[in-house]
Structure formats: C-alpha cells, structure tokens
Give the backbone structure.
Amino acid sequence: MTERWVEHYHEHGYAIVPGVFDANEIADIAHQFDLLYQQGIAYGRSFRDHNSFFAVTDDAALGAIVRMVQWPSYFNATLERIRRDPRMLGIVAPLIGPDLKQIINQLHWKPPRAAMTEFGFHQDSRSRRPRDAFRDLAASYVQTGIAIDPHRAENGAMTVYPGSHRLGEIPFDASRRTRNVELNDRDLETLGLDPAKTVTLTLAPGDVALWGVHTLHGSGANTTEIDRRFYLNGYVIAENCDRGEWAWRNTTPCPLPDEPSLVHYEALYEAPGPMYVD
Ligand SMILES: O=C(O)CCC(=O)C(=O)O
C-alpha cells in the first residue's frame, strides 16, 4: 500500500491515501471547522492574531463568509493533534523523512451558493517566500489535504495536472492571484498544456491527498448544497527550511510552542495583533 502511493506521487506529482481518518474523527474535525466558521462570522471581517488568520470576505448574496483559517492549531487542540498525527507522518516520511517542520496549517471552506470560491491553476512554489529560507524546495516539501466532506468535481474538488511536478517553476505572471480566481483551462493552454490531461480528485471524508510544490493545481466552483471543507497541512524537511513550526523531530511529534515561530507572516514580531485586517 505504502509503495503504491509513494510510487504514484513520484510518477504523477500527486497521490491519494484512502481512509486515513475514520468517521468519528472526521465528525470531530468537522465540528471544529464549524466552530471556527462561527468565530470568523462573529469577527465579521478578516482577523489576525500572530500566525492565526481568519480570511472573511463579503459575498453579495450570503453576506460575510469565511474562506480560510490559517494556523488554527495554536488554539484548537483537535486540529493541533491531527497536524502531528503519526498517520500523517506515515504518509509524508517515505517522501521527505522523519525530521519535519510545518509551513502550512489551513482550513478551507467553499460554502454552498457563494459566488466565488475557486482557486486558479498555480504551483505552491510561488508562495514559498522568502525563497532563500527554502532550500531544495522541489524535493523537500509536501502538501497534504484531508477531505472533511465528500470531495467531488461538483463541490469544487482539487484538480491537478499529472506530471507537472517535472516542469520546474512555471513563469506565471507574478501579480496573478490564486485565491478567488476562476479555474480556467485557458491558463493551461497559455502554458502549452493540454486541459484534457487534468485529473479531478475524488475523495471520501477521511482520505488524504498529497501533492508537490511544482504540481499544477487549482479547484473549481461549488455548485452543490453541501460545503467542501478541506484541512491542509504542508510539511518540509526541517534542515532545508528556516521557517515554520516543528511537526516531528526524528518521528517524535512536536506540539506547537507558546511563542509562535516565523512562518509566512513577515510582521509577526512588529505587528502580532490581535487585529482586524482589511
Ligand atoms: O482548497 C483548495 O481547493 C485549493 C487549495 C490550494 O490550491 C492550495 O492551498 O494551494
């Protein structure tokens, strides 16, 4: 089993590990998503406290919606435990070893009937900044996503371009945003890639998807009446990264420290919050 998805990841730049978390665990995680969603709605605007960030946007029809929470694990025990769960280590260690830091800890929602919840095609490498803090990026970093809801094309599933991990860093327009941008085949055609080769990931709750830093991916619209919640954790070989929080030191899980470390929020020390962010 291990060999099958490790091989698949190396060959195609992504893989799916089925049935990692059971129904009770997913129900608990889903409950934490719901509590955090309510917390974001109560803020009514985007809100930051150190590395923790609630991205709240205004939807014309629905009013305030929560699109994403970054680093909820500093204050949510369930999510904190899952980020360093031995099963997550079992998935990523065959690819990047047992000494790992974490640079992404993120919840995504696609609320039904929200006008725009898509992610345009992109490579995660564009967000791994400052670049000199990330060494040997292509071989050192793995992103994972735990499906909380049935994850299908109709509710905005992740779509990947198999084999794109071998293309290196694609020279996208640097000003191009990723979040709240349409998943558009034209972006692939512009790059000389064939949209017919994309694969939409179908996941059951509790399945884990993983992809690489150069794997082209995005996700479409939610046209259903259910949400599409996705718990993302991104890991990196510790010695190849100056940023992030420890996840495992030689397989030993590391709880998050009281004092957050520098990850992606550059003003962590000068402007830690708590504060609303426009
Ligand atoms: O939640 C999603 O569908 C997309 C996630 C993604 O593309 C990313 O985090 O890079």
User: Anything to note?
Assistant: Helices lie at 2-12, 23-43, 77-83, 86-96, 137-140, 185-190. The radius of gyration is 18 Å.
